[in-house]
Amino acid sequence: MARPGKGIGLFTGLFILAILAVIFYFKFLWVFSDGTKTGELNSLTYTGYVFKTYEGEIILTGYGSKNASGTVQSKNFKFSVENKDVAEKLRQMTGLRVTVHYKEYKGRLPWRGYERAVVDSVQEEFPESTTTPQKTEDGFFL
What we know:
CATH 2.40.50.140, 5-stranded mixed barrel, 5 strands, 23% helix
């Protein structure tokens, strides 16, 4: 004989599970924003206790200030990298001016990295006066 209320309890449990799945999706898997940032690649590290991830930082330079005119300000953009090939390309560009494309999530997952911004591609930015980059034997660009 079926217990009265068993169907209601099952329905309530499934409803709560569905709500939690939607919350998880929007917090950790849905891309909140994506865009590009350009600046000097300051660092890229491979770090972590259990989940080893690539973490980087770009110095974004800006001109002007609210308090004084003619000043230069900088801001740091911290990011994680999931793709090992993109991380290797970034590692080779440390110290150079780069443009990265990133996706930003509302939450962090330990295997995705420490930052909410996750870089998925990179390209090097050459000075406008340089027509063709010249790579030296050390691997640096002129």
